[in-house]
Amino acid sequence: MRATPNESSAERDAVLARGCSSPIKTAIGVWMRCGSRIKSRCPSCAELYRNDWAAIARSGVFDGPVEQYRFYLLTLTAPSFGGVHRVPRVGDAMCRCGRLHNAGDSGLRGVPLDPGRYDYAGQVAWNRDAGVLWDRTRRRMRDRWDSLEYFIVREWQDRGVLHVHALVRIARIEAPSSDSLRDAARTATAVSKVDGTIVEWGAQADCKAFRADGDGAKTIWYLSKALNYVLKDVATDASEVPVAVWRHQVALGQAARQTRCTTDCEPQNCSSLVHQRYGSRSQVVSASRRTSKRTGWSFTGLTRTLQRQLRRAWWESQQVDEAGASVVVDSPAPLENLAARFRRELVARDGSAP
Ligand SMILES: [Zn+2]
Ligand SMILES: [Zn+2]
Ligand SMILES: [Zn+2]
Fold first, then answer.
1. Does some domain include residue 334?
2. Is the pLDDT assigned to residue 165 strictly greater than 90?
3. In this structure, are 272 and 330 located in the same domain?
4. How many angstroms separate the alpha carbon of residue 158 from the centre of ligand 2?
5. How many angstroms separate the alpha carbon of residue 195 from the centre of ligand 1?
6. Final residue before a domain boundary, out of 247, 262, 287
7. CB neighbours of 313 closer than 8 A, spacing ≥ 6?
8. How far is CA 61 from the centre of its chain?
């Protein structure tokens, strides 16, 4: 049953050939993609991850009775933890430091005006508690609009704090104005489970309605750009980073190592990733789930688990080989086709859950 070293390396080569830069071998001897979400570690797997999520995002906008819903793009930001330089990506802008910045000053982008007085601890604590805050926010919105479903992407701002883009869908019969939705979300608060402080959103918030047509396609394109961005390493290689940005990242990293991630965390002995990611514990992307009472964000019940199963099934069907030995899993291309077929089947089955 065991593959010889030669066969085994051929399988590994097959995974490599599909783009994964560091395939891993499972306990049963199957070579698989590394599954990294980080572009600098494995561009191919990170791209696959992004495409999977983009397909889920689309399925909540295009694959159902869209005329019965209103769609919104909601953006929520973190509060201020101290002023930072404002460096535009195009054109120039007056900064609070008194200088006019342009793209050439990118070495100052997101850097505190006064590092000595910047609230690093507050910022990493906010990142840590951002998941609880979103949880309160989504409950608050659902208390008002029961039909609400969402798809959320958490993106890093240059200053090293998370902000949130959410696609929101609400049934037309109860759909609010964009402003009402924005205000209900922005004024939600939570209590930190770690230190009992109140966690709030920043004053900057935005909400725009969009239609499930080219408008929706544009919105998802915008969001998948954000997805691209979140899949970059949080902390970049010091040699590529301007010194002021690097200092800021180091200070944030130190604050994250010193913060407690749970009530009984001893930071110096704790190996939780929270201490390595500026306090962040949340998944970067998530969508509301299907339950017995709800459709969930995806009209067709598309999830990442389902996508992985589809991909595995596809590869297994391709690899019913002579040896009948190990199979190689994963490919991005056939997934969309499979997902489309799966959706059609679901629709044929009257939208029942998988
Ligand atoms: Zn990989
Ligand atoms: Zn400035
Ligand atoms: Zn900890």
1. yes
2. yes
3. no
4. 14
5. 38
6. 287
7. 338
8. 18
- Residue 254 Cα to ligand 3 midpoint, Å, equals 13
Res 193 pLDDT > 80: yes
Query: How many folded domains does the chain comprise?
Result: 2
Q: What is the pLDDT of residues 3-17, one digit of tens each?
A: 444 556 677 776 776
Let me know whether 190 and 262 are in one domain: yes
169 and 254 belong to one structural domain? yes
Structure tokens at 302: 């598309």
Q: What is the CA(169)–ligand 2 centre distance, in A? A: 39
Residue 141 lies in a domain: yes
Ligand 2 centroid to 98 CA: how many Å? 7
Q: What is the pTM for the complete model shown?
A: 0.80
- Which of 280, 207, 297, 284 lies closest to 39, judged by CA? 284
Residues 208 and 344 in one domain: no
Residue 294 forms part of a structural domain: no
Distance CA(224)–CA(221), nearest Å, equals 5
Domain limits for position 229: 62-81+119-287
pLDDT at 283 over 90: no
What are the start-end ranges of the H helices in 25-106? 43-62
Question: What is d(CA 153, CA 219) in angstroms, rounded to the nearest whole number?
Answer: 13
Residue 122 confidence (pLDDT): 96
Q: Report CA(14)–ligand 1 centroid distance (Å).
A: 12
Please tell me the distance between residue 231's alpha carbon and the centre of ligand 1 in angstroms: 13
Residues with CB under 5 A from ligand 3 (ion): 261, 265, 270, 272
Q: What pLDDT, on the 0 to 100 scale, is given for residue 4?
A: 47
**What pLDDT shows up at residue 335?**
52
Cα separation of 221 and 336, whole Å?
A: 16
